[in-house]
Design a protein that fits this description.
Layout (H helix, E strand, L loop, with lengths): L3 E7 L1 H4 L13 E5 L3 H11 L13 E5 L3 E5 L2 H8 L3 H12 L8 H20 L3 E7 L1
Antiparallel strand pairs: 1-2, 1-5, 3-4, 4-5
Helix pairs in contact: 2-4, 3-5, 4-5
Amino acid sequence: MSMPSIFFAAADSVAKNTHLNHSLPEEDVAELNAIDTLKLSTLWAIIDEKTWDVDSMDAFQELYSAESEWMHLIPDELTQKIAFLDDAKLTRVSKEWAATDEMACQPEEAREVFRAIAKIAARAIQTHRKFYLYTSL
């Protein structure tokens, strides 16, 4: 069983009512699997070319937590970095992110995941909304 991970751009009032069976516009959503704040924090460290630090997890504001679902606001700084990472850096980032214990995949798969996330991060910026991650078991 894989953990659904829904990245989306939304106003705060919409985000707090978003769950697994949502009605968000398709262009505002990337539905992936098994991407959580730990994987995003490792991605952030890789983008910044820093060593991962457990304290980086604190940057992901938890909006709600239930028995089997969570909603996090992705920090604006990371949203910007994801949305505007250039192709030259994406090659390095994809390779390094794929090699982490958390991702454990091929670089091309990490690149595809990154691109799906980046599309929604850019959408959030373009539409002046926030970038969220909803996860569920």
